[in-house]
Amino acid sequence: MAKKQSAPQELATVAPKLVEVTDQVLFGDVWERPELSPRDRSLITVTALAALYRTEQLGYHLKTALENGLTKEELAEALTHLAFYAGWPNAMSGVTRLKNILDEAESSGS
């Protein structure tokens, strides 16, 4: 089981309501609904973020996807598939971010 997701709490000093709604509604309700598994939600989230070139959020969700049971091969395949629908640069940025996360995990022994 992955750790409980949460908005970056340091953002509460700037936008406390956004952090509250993120924690209570997005991660406390939407991510907990039984109709999709956390693994499936992670795959959807990663591909949506990559497709929309939301790279700032992508790293966090790639790590979460791995914690939720997706393999590096599955994530790489999803991003490769996405290249034909969302654009080559978006897919390459996603794969680059995934490689960096995997390299960091390997060097830290995780």
Question: What does this entry look like structurally?
Answer:
The protein is mainly α. It has five helices and no strands. Helix 2 packs antiparallel against helix 3 and helix 3 packs across helix 5 (about 90-110). The longest helix is centred in the last third of the chain and has 21 residues, at about 90-110. The mean pLDDT is about 95. This is Carboxymuconolactone decarboxylase family protein.
What's the quick description here?
The chain is mainly α. Helices cover 68% and strands 0% of the residues.
Keywords:
single chain; 5 helices; mainly alpha; 68% helix; globular; 110 residues
Strand element count = 0
Shape, please?
Answer: globular
Percent of residues in beta strands: under 5%
Mean pLDDT level: 93
Q: Number of DSSP helices? A: 5
What value does the Rg take, in angstroms?
14 Å
The ordered string of helix (H) and strand (E) elements is HHHHH
Instruction: Assign a percent range to the helix content.
Output: 55-70%
Largest sheet: none
Q: Based on helices, strands and strand pairing, what is the structural class? A: mainly alpha
Q: Low-confidence parts lasting 5 or more residues at pLDDT below 50?
A: none
Distance between the amino and carboxyl termini: 16 Å
Protein name: Carboxymuconolactone decarboxylase family protein
